[in-house]
Amino acid sequence: MIYLVRHGQTEFNAEGRFQGHMDSPLSALGVDQAERVGDRLRDLVGDIAGVTLISSPLGRTLRTAEIIRERLGLRAEIEIEPRLIEITVGAWEGRTRDEILTEHPTPSRAMLFEAPGGETYDQAAARLSSWLAGLELSDGRRRIVVSHGAAGWVLRGLYAGLPKAEVLALPAPPQDTIFRLADGRIERIDCAPATA
Description:
The chain is α/β, with parallel strands linked by helices.
C-alpha cells in the first residue's frame, strides 16, 4: 500500500513559479498543510510499526516528510528515493506561469513536459515506473511517499495503468491531499482545514 503525498506549498508555489529541480522553502501554509496531512496519516495508519517513509531528495519534500515523521512519531529514518524527484522543466525553472504563457500562449497540462531542456513525459514515466515496478505491493507494507505535483500525477497514472492522454486529464494533486494506492484502486483523502 502506498500513501502518496505532495509536498506542502512553497514560496515558489505561492508566487506561481515553476520549480522543477530548483528548490524553495515551504510557506507558512505549506507547513500547515504538511501538519494536517501528517495528522490524517496518523489516523489512517494507526500502528506505525513497519511504516516506511520515502521522499524525493529535494528540500521541499524532505521538509514535508520531516513534518509528517514528527506528527506520526516515527523513529525510522526517511528513505530518500531519487526517482521520486519532480520533473525538470529546464529553461522554465524559476520563471512564473505568466512569463511562460507569453511565450506558450495555449496552456495545457502537456506543456509541463514540453519545456525547453526539460524532461519529457516518457522520460518521467520511465523513471517512475522503474521505481514502482521494484516495489512488492502485495507484501502488506505501508509506505508513505512524499513526492511532487507532476511526478505524483504521473505516478498515479502509472499505478492505474492509464495511457498518457488519460494521465494528462487527471486533476493536479492538491498539497493537502493523500492518495491511497491499494489493491489496484486509488482513493483520494482530503485533509482540508476544519471550518469554524
